[in-house]
């Protein structure tokens, strides 16, 4: 199937991008009316640059423009191969090269609006590398120990890390990039599936807590369909689905999620409880198997006389009284661990008992 290229960029002060089609090749871009793609913008020369196909490679050549042609913010002096996701500058006007597998209908071409919502004022670099990461599944699974309150092993939380040689492993940086590309759900799904694959290969036979991106809670039906598929692929894993407490806004929907998880033999944990509004009604109406106290409640827990200790103790008594197991996140010192034991918290997670480590060692 033929590839269809177009440029994505901004016009004036608009915060929404426009789409500029590359209809044929070679295609000359510039201000002159005879150009194949006319861009009547300041700093763009009358005949600024040329796009041409050489086999399956797309080549960009500067045509002696006054203000230069740049690829990923590097000025080019000779014909340069470019790929989808590259950031291009014609003078000081910024574009991102995009590709589709088939041309759109003429009606779609007539619309210059791009339906991916507001984009940042500058396109991020490494777009091509990010989509390469998704396509080549350049991620791996990590695990972090969850201990019983006596320090003995109980479970692991599954965590994803990148393996792309340019983008690095940081999940925070990868999700920041993914959100600018409207691809955070795709990244979350890839992390999750690769974690499950690694956990199955490592024959992990303990409870495995796994996360979702907050955006996935906007469509529980799609999320549950994916979990059903993964459960079929990995029937032996002991899975615990973590949902952020802020996502629990619809009791009826959450009750349906709870029933679906029971059918899939997947446990339920409310994550980051106390990070914002403590949704006690939801805990009562749709009780989870586990509730994880947010690190903000646990950090700096250093005295049984502190207000933080009293608050955590009161919440733990209330939650435990409902038959829900509790877990403290972010425990880094033995003093904090002992105070959690005194409160009666069931499980402890944090650097005291282990940092994230690969599920499958190199």
Automatic annotation (TrEMBL):
Top-level lineage group: Bacteria
Ranges of residues in domain FHA: 27-76
UniProt domain EAL: residue ranges: 123-362
One Pfam family this sequence matches: FHA
PANTHER family reported for this sequence: CYCLIC DI-GMP PHOSPHODIESTERASE PDEF, SIGNALING PROTEIN
Protein name: EAL domain-containing protein
Organism of origin: Gilvimarinus algae
